[in-house]
């Protein structure tokens, strides 16, 4: 684990010595690569695991909204994995930036999946609505006025609920203030544009994982996204919130490794789950 503060907009780090498949894990807004620490040891030991630190991470959150092209920064993370990331696991807002990147590339006539070497996707707690009329003024009010609660959820998941409620609230409000109005707008703009995604072009096998108790990216939105993709399944993690990789790392790793096993082939036993044990929903 890297302990120094890295202020580069994008950095990737190889976390295991496995020989494949190559798996890149992308964190969401106001988080960093430590969000995967509980999951990494639960995944099969032959995976070649990479984590990315992206411009919207905790350390650089006050500056990230000045980055003009989030798609471009995420593309740099994909390109930084030697040989390409065969499986991309993207959480929360990173999932939305990834979908936006693939969508824009394909609209421009580029086979983005082939360009980046992506063979499978795992989208964790994504924000998605299939129709523009599913957004109303109450939606904006909820995500604007209660945005600090989403930040608090990250603190709760990381701490395992050990932080007192008043301190957790203060910390959540501080993170919200560091994200700022411009950062919030960058997030919400991605969300507002999800009805325009040409999901039919994203043809690789995809797993959408959602938390049963997620009040930020509601589980039904992830299930709807899986239904809009040509080759996707969804899995609802019982009892988990917006961070299933923290709330239930072992179960989360089993779901992901089972999907990768089904899609790309077998791996060693650690973290493995049989496909029929995943309770996947099509």
Protein described:
The structure is a single chain. The chain has 282 residues and is α/β, with parallel strands linked by helices. It has a single domain, classed as Alpha/Beta hydrolase fold, catalytic domain (Rossmann fold, 3-Layer(aba) Sandwich). The protein is built from 9 helices and 7 strands, in the order E-E-E-H-E-H-H-E-H-H-H-E-H-E-H-H. The chain has helices spanning 70-79, 93-107, 112-116, 137-145, 147-159, 165-192, 219-228, 244-247, 249-264, and strands at residues 11-14, 22-26, 48-53, 87-91, 120-124, 206-211, 232-237. Strands 1-3-2-4-5-6-7 form a 7-stranded mixed β-sheet, sandwiched between helices.
């Amino acid at each position: 684990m890297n302990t120094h503060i890295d202020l580069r907009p994008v950095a990737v780090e190889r976390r295991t010595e496995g020989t494949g498949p190559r798996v890149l894990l992308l964190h969401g807004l106001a988080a960093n690569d430590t969000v995967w620490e509980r999951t990494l040891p639960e995944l099969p030991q032959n995976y070649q695991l990479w984590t990315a630190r992206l411009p919207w991470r905790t350390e650089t959150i006050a500056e990230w909204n000045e980055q003009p092209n989030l798609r471009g920064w995420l593309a740099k993370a994909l390109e930084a994995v030697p040989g390409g990331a065969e499986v991309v696991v993207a959480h929360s807002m990173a999932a939305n930036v990834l979908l936006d990147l693939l969508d824009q590339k394909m609209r421009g006539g580029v086979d983005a999946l082939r360009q980046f070497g992506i063979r499978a996707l795992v989208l964790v707690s994504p924000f998605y609505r299939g129709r523009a009329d599913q957004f109303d003024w109450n939606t904006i009010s909820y995500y604007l006025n209660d945005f600090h609660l989403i930040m608090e959820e990250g603190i709760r998941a990381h701490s395992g609920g050990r932080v007192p409620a008043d301190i957790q609230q203060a910390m959540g409000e501080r993170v919200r203030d560091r994200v700022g109005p411009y950062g919030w707008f960058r997030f919400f703009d991605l969300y507002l544009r999800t009805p325009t995604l040409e999901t039919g072009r994203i043809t690789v096998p995809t797993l959408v994982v959602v938390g049963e108790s997620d009040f930020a990216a509601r589980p039904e939105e992830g299930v709807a996204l899986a239904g809009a993709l040509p080759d996707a399944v969804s899995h609802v993690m019982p009892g988990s919130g917006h961070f299933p990789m923290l709330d239930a790392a072992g179960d989360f790793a089993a779901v992901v490794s089972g999907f990768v096993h089904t899609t790309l082939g077998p791996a060693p036993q650690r973290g493995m789950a049989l496909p029929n044990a995943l309770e996947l929903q099509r």
